[in-house]
Each structure stands twice: as C-alpha cells, then as structure tokens.
Amino acid sequence: MDVWSLFVTIAWTVDLNKFRQNLHQFKTVQEVHQALSAVAPKMTNISEMARLDPDMRASAAQMLVKCFDGEGLSTSRNRVPPLSPSKLEITEAEMH
After folding, report:
1. What does DSSP assign to residue 82?
2. Cα gap 9→67, rounded to integer Å
3. Rounded to two decimals, what is the model's pTM?
4. Which of 5, 38, 71, 86 is most buried (most C-beta within 10 Å)?
C-alpha cells in the first residue's frame, strides 16, 4: 500500500491530467482509480507502482532496482523478484 500511496502523492505533485486540480470532484474511490489509471501510462518509469492489484504492484525494492540500480536496498538484490509484466504486456506477449 505504501508504494501505491507514493504513486498517488507523485501524481498529485506532478498534477498530470490535472489530477490535483480535479481531486475535489472525485466522489468515489473508483473515480480516483480511473484517474490514476489514466495518469500511470504517462509515468512509464514508475507506472508499476500504480497497479491496483497488490500482487502485480511493484515493491519498494523492485522500484529501487529499476530506478536506482538497487542503490538504497536493505534486501539482498538476489532476493528481489523481477517486476511482473503488466496485463497489457502479458496480452501482447500472448498475441505473438
């Protein structure tokens, strides 16, 4: 949950798609999820943090490996699993 919350904080700070400006208009959690789903593809370097399914969402360790070549890890790098492919990546792989 902390990784997802960090993504929300970044989306709010960067204000892509006017996420911050429109925040007061969201009436349901689903509307927030939809807005974040629209922002995530534009933030390709951290989009794995925005996955709603916690089993598919990147961990902090995985993001440290991806974005900072593992700098700051407290876990042995060989214990950090690779990032799971997104549903789009799985679908594209199945088509080929």
Report:
1. P
2. 17
3. 0.78
4. 86
Q: pLDDT for 63-92, tens place per residue?
A: 999 999 999 999 999 999 999 886 544 333
Contact 49, 7 (CB under 8 A): yes
SS3 96: coil
C-alpha torsion angle, residues 68, 72, 78, 79 (rounded to 10): -120
Sequence-ordered alpha helix ranges (H) in 1-96: 2-14, 19-22, 29-39, 60-68, 87-95
pLDDT in the model for residue 92: 38
Element (H, E) at 45: none
